[in-house]
Design a protein that fits this description.
This protein has 190 residues and is mainly α. The protein has one domain: Ferritin, core subunit, four-helix bundle (Ferritin), CATH 1.20.1260. The protein contains five helices and two strands, in the order αααααββ. It has helices spanning 7-35, 39-65, 76-90, 96-126, 130-163; strands spanning 177-178, 181-182. The chain has a two-stranded antiparallel ribbon with strand order 1-2. α1 runs antiparallel to α2, α3 (76-90) packs antiparallel against α4 and α4 (96-126) packs antiparallel against α5. The longest helix has 34 residues, at 130-163. The model is unreliable at 171-190 (pLDDT under 50). Bound molecules: fe (iii) ion (FE) (3 copies). One fe (iii) ion binds at residues 17, 21, 75, 77-78.
Length: 190
């Protein structure tokens, strides 16, 4: 990678990171939707997938404005966040507890995006790139709204359901947690 020496170059590098992050998400969100057991959560992921596809288009537009090729630069952070989410899904059953975990994983993703878009927006402002500011603001608003919607879903229903959720993969020795108090334990102590 060539050296980054100017704010213009830093801005383009930030766009490439966001572009790759969003592209990774267009592949991860359908999997997260599939893993969700709550209809509301699945809908939220599907809706955000549509927004994410638009966000990719906005980034392409900004590259175009800057006469830069719309290519990404591997976002290692997003790859890591997605990997952690995948691991949580494969180590959980299809219950509200998994949904609570999916929300937590998705909010880490949104917070990363909010931070990335916030900086890119500020740098576009600094560079006097008004059209980029407008496009980045639009995406930033969607990411914040998604984050708030996920908090709302967790707090209005999913967390409570998860708290009284009983694992479907265990037998008589299942772990049932009621109001935060463990009523029985699995013989493996998990
Ligand atoms: Fe996004
Ligand atoms: Fe990144
Ligand atoms: Fe997002």
């Amino acid at each position: 990678m060539p050296k980054i020496t100017t704010m213009e170059e830093l801005f383009i590098d930030e766009l490439r990171d966001l572009y790759d992050a969003e592209t990774q998400l267009t592949k991860a969100l359908p999997k997260m939707a599939k893993a969700a057991s709550s209809d509301e959560l699945r809908n939220a992921f599907e809706e955000h997938l549509e927004q994410t596809e638009n966000q990719v288009e906005r980034l392409k537009r900004i590259f175009e404005l800057s006469s830069e090729k719309p290519t990404g630069r591997k976002c290692a952070a997003m790859a890591g966040l997605i990997k952690e989410g995948d691991a949580m899904v494969s180590h959980s059953d299809d219950t509200p507890v998994r949904d609570a975990g999916l929300i937590a994983a998705a909010q880490k993703v949104e917070h990363y995006e909010i931070s990335g878009y916030g900086s890119a927006r500020t740098h576009a402002e600094l560079l006097g790139n008004d059209e980029a500011v407008r496009l980045l603001e639009e995406t930033l608003r969607e990411e914040k709204e998604t984050d708030e919607k996920l908090t709302e879903l967790a707090q209005s229903m999913i967390n409570e359901e998860a708290l009284t959720s009983v694992s479907s993969s265990t037998d008589g020795a299942r772990t049932a947690t009621v109001r935060g108090r463990s009523t029985s334990r699995s013989p493996h102590g998990r």
